[in-house]
């Protein structure tokens, strides 16, 4: 506890807290004992009348004009603001005045008063050590002051038998020492009770802090667990997605192999079949030419399919890289237009190259081969799937884009594509069935390769179409005009 053995004060920061607490827990008792003291002191007038009737007057002056007013004044002061600063001093003075009153009575009352009224000081000592909540040291000082005052009175105002004086003083000193012991014990227990109360408070605070800490820990742990759970769910979802992708890829591989074998077997059968037919004797020139034509076409189709397959595998393995060079898009597209014009005209279609890029933007850096491949495939498809009408294509700059973007478009009046197949046409091996296209050859790989190439060049491809009315394919390219190289 760390109490000073004599003053009983705490040796640490607890002392001011104790003093504050001691005042708060004492003030009510102090007030009650002052009021009780006032009544008590006054009520002894009855004894005065019975024992010392001739001295009632002078004793009453001491009781009612000196001691009782002092008690009342201190009582009244206990309601003032600054009282807690000097309350021990004030209480001590009030007790000393009360003690002095008794001493005065023993001096002024002859006979029995002189010898026996000193007993009243024991009552004062009881008040001093037990009731007015004086701490041990102030109470001891107060007690001894009263004893000394009585001893002085014996010295200054002789008249008491020496034996009586010695006996009275002896009892008073003994009573005071007993009071001191009682006061010491009382304060010691009060401080001990305060100390444990304080400890309890500190422990409770620690527990509360630990609780808060624990709650925080639980909160953090819960958040971590929730995050863990979310991550686990995410991983689970990714796993499921990966599994689905793997299964899809597996299905795709199977379909791919089936498609490849079909795409290869069909022209191969044509070649082998018609080659053996050619061997027949006596064939007319017309038939021979016809067979040779079919063999040639089958060979071409086989070559196209193999080329497509090679392109697909190059895209898949990622070895197909972009090789940029300065390309004159207007010129190159014009060349392709000229190249396909005869084929379109042969089919009775009007092919037109409707819009070109402004001169400043026409020359830009891109992959020439891929650009040719994209346009070729789109024009070929347009011619393939259009049976009457026209095909128009062109280049333009998209005005509404933040970054300069070029668009190639190709519009045909062909068979069109049903809405539910529009997105799928860019997938591999997708061929939209249509009565008119049953006989048309195609591997269903062209648009998927085209899409991959457009994306490699930094653009996007899209299609709008209406069945039996026609289709419009568009793709974009970023148009960073290339510096003209001389
Ligand atoms: P294919 O070699 O079969 O033409 P593509 O990948 O180039 O393969 O095209 C996929 C499918 O998209 C074609 O089979 C066809 O049904 C449809 N398609 C492509 N272009 C057009 C078009 N211009 N008009 C109508 N249908 C088209």
Description of the molecule:
It is a single chain. The chain is of the alpha+beta class and about 475 residues long. It folds into two domains: about 15-200 and about 240-315, no CATH class; about 325-480, Heat Shock Protein 90 (2-Layer Sandwich), CATH 3.30.565. It contains 13 helices and seven strands. It has helices spanning about 15-45, 45-50, 55-75, 85-110, 110-115, 120-130, 135-155, 160-280, 285-315, 330-345, 360, 370-385, 445-455; strands at about 325-330, 350-355, 365, 390-400, 405-410, 460-465, 470-480. It has a five-stranded mixed sheet. Strands 1-3 form a two-stranded antiparallel ribbon. Helix 1 (about 15-45) packs antiparallel against helix 3 and helix 3 (about 55-75) packs antiparallel against helix 4. The radius of gyration is 59 Å and the shape is rod-shaped. The chain starts with 13 loop residues before the first helix and ends in an 8-residue tail after the last strand. The structure holds adenosine-5'-diphosphate. Adenosine-5'-diphosphate binds next to helix 12 and helix 13.
Number of strands: 7
Shape: rod-shaped
Strands in their spatial order, largest beta sheet: 2-4-5-7-6
In helices, the fraction of residues equals: 55-70%
Spell the H/E element sequence.
HHHHHHHHHEHEHEHEEHEE
Strand content: 5-15%
Give the termini distance in whole angstroms.
99 Å
Low-confidence spans: none
Radius of gyration, taken over Cα atoms and rounded to an integer in Å: 59 Å
Most strands sheet: 5 strands, mixed
Structural class: alpha+beta
Bound molecules: adenosine-5'-diphosphate
